[in-house]
Amino acid sequence: MQKFTLTLVSVVLAGSGLVGCANMDETQRTTGTGAAIGAVAGAVIGGATGGGNKGKSAATGAVIGAALGAGGGYLWSKHMAEQKAAMEQATQGTGIGVSQTADNRLKLDIPSDVSFDSGSYEIRPGLKPVLDRFAGTLNQNPATTVQIVGHTDNSGSDAVNNPLSVNRASATRDYLVARGVAGQRIAIDGRGSHEPVADNATAAGRAMNRRVEIFVAEAAR
After folding, report:
1. Which DSSP string do the residues of 53-84 spell out, in sequence order?
2. Helices (DSSP H) in the chain: which residue ranges?
3. Which CATH number fits domain 78-218: 3.30.720.120, 1.10.4100.10, 3.30.1330.60, 1.10.3210.10?
4. Cα–Cα distance list, 162 to 26, 60, 153, 198, 200 (Å)
5. Is the dihedral of CA 49, 52, 58, 59 positive or negative?
6. Delimiting residues of CATH 3.30.1330.60 domain(s) in the chain
């Protein structure tokens, strides 16, 4: 256990050291943060699944987690940071959330009152200027890929909600393609009501669950 603790601390401190260097750019600092987080996550997973040899498994998990956390498969580059800033400006005051995910993707969280009427997959007029700006940033950064995921609340059955969530993602993709974004860059998915972010027992919670999420990623090289 002592050996495992030292190994884990070394990995985490290595990642934290990267974050703390004053002369490193944003990409390097983000990568360092990912390494530290990945190390801890990997250690927890390794420890939980290692059976009678949890110390060794957790240490191995920390090393693997650090490697995954450092890249996460994705790179938070200067272009990604610029795209995030552009979308923050374009969505200001709209209720659309713009964030960087733990695995270095740009996420747009679009609530239903901005995106689609209840039971519909026709894009609302208020969302179109945002998607226009978004398409422009995508066309300026052709190395990125996009995933669009539709969600619903739990009103109605899966037979209704599952295809509705896919259709909303599809409509968003089609809008972007019509504005010059290559269709092969965009993957879509619909999760129906199966991934709520709020309590479906309340009207406010159901409104939060009716949403479209858009993820933009730049593969690490």
Report:
1. GHHHHHHHHHHHHHHHHHHTTB---HHHHHHH
2. 2-20, 26-49, 54-71, 78-90, 112-115, 128-140, 158-178, 203-209
3. 3.30.1330.60
4. 39, 39, 10, 18, 16
5. negative
6. 78-218
Cα radius of gyration (the chain): 20
- pLDDT, one tens digit per residue, over 69-87 is 444 589 999 999 999 999 9
**pLDDT one-digit tens code per residue, 112-169:** 889 988 889 999 999 999 999 999 999 999 999 999 999 999 998 999 999 999 999 9
Task: Say yes or no to pLDDT of 59 above 50.
Answer: no
Q: Which residue has the tokens 């979308």?
A: 87
Tokens (6 digits) for 63: 């090393």
Give the 3-state secondary structure of residue 107.
strand
Residue 27: predicted pLDDT: 46
User: In the predicted model, what is the mean pLDDT of residues 188-203?
Assistant: 95
